[in-house]
Design goal:
two-stranded parallel ribbon, about 80 residues, mainly alpha, 2 strands
Length: about 80
């Protein structure tokens, strides 16, 4: 399912309570303020397991890595200032 379609149907997807999520092209989720990230991160985070895949190299900027690391380990990365 595309990110745009998943964004539009996020409430329905969350209600299904998936146990595993595989997200490709996760570099699209690097911005904390993007509408796509705001609607999709709860879907990915609520799953027991998630795999984030991206063929696009991440820049070494902490701000671009934070959102993806927060998806994987919300218990460790509580806010950006603490992470940076």
């Amino acid at each position: 399912m595309s990110y745009d379609l998943a964004s539009r149907r996020s409430e329905e997807i969350i209600s299904r309570n998936f146990q595993a999520v595989i997200a490709d092209e996760t570099h699209y989720l690097k911005s904390r303020d993007a509408k796509r990230s705001i609607s999709l991160i709860p879907i990915i985070s609520q799953a027991k397991r998630c795999i984030l895949i991206s063929g696009t190299p991440m820049l070494a900027k902490p701000v671009e890595l934070y959102n993806l690391l927060r998806i994987l380990r919300p218990d460790i990365f509580h806010n950006f200032n603490e992470f940076a």
